[in-house]
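Hi R.,

Here's the chain you asked about this morning:
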Amino acid sequence: MKRHDFVTIADLSKERIMYLLDMAREFEKFPNRELLKGKVVATLFFEPSTRTRLSFETAANRLGARVIGFTDAKASSVSKGETLKDTLLMVSNYADIIVMRHFIEGAAQYASEVAPVPIINAGDGAHQHPSQTMLDLYSIYKTQGTLEGLNIYLVGDLKYGRTVHSLIMAMRHFNPTFHFVAPKELAMPAEYKIYCKEHGIRFQEHTAFNEKVIADADIIYMTRVQKERFSDLMEYERVKNIYILKSDMLGLCKPNMRVLHPLPRVNEIAYDVDENPHAYYIQQAQNGLYARQALFCYVLGIDMEQVKNDSTIL
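And the predicted structure, written out as tokens:
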């Protein structure tokens, strides 16, 4: 395998997605290896993060790499006026991979064009979050036994939710039916509905969110209303608690149905759901470790044979 950037899920074929999921499964069996021994991973987080940053750093550490970087751009030379280009070129002198989260849509694509080392997009504005999508796909695959022909309900902030935008693109290969559940202020943007139509993806739109609406779901994917994306805080206050999933709403759901959430949650999933057997969002976050280990191998050109034949399992 040659080296790659990982900027958008739209670049991955069905075969490549399944290949990476199989690799994630190998890492779940044995997460501690030294496939990246001697490598340096730089994590550049221009936006706050907990799960994404820590899971990338843990993935790097469990594969034997060292980690450098920053969690706040104010602690870097960006605060002095350094351009993104110069930051990337400087960090490329020190690292073999750059994992970057940025608040500007398209920043990861720009980084891949500038930096001489592989770029992994850890989220760019409201655009995409492809590494989250890989762990979402792995979570769906593990809980459903397939990615084919599923009813997937996307609930909440579909306007700014980069995780749901990426998931739509990834699922184009697997004949899903999407249900977009959102108020009009947070409805799925027209460009993603056009994308669905162009790729033959079935979808329905709902504003109601209740026990009957979600009864046929295989996956309920809750999202946080993202305060940081709103320029009008009054609009945020109107919609922030519009959909709250409670345990008593899950009585009609299929036995196999699982509730996912990219986290963090605010109020959109009540705490009584945590004890419900349909809840899977904590395990979903754990799956991020294995998916991101697979992505490190992908961007560095480490193939499945090398992973399976790895003799440094710890």
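The radius of gyration is 19 Å.

Let me know if you need anything else.
M.
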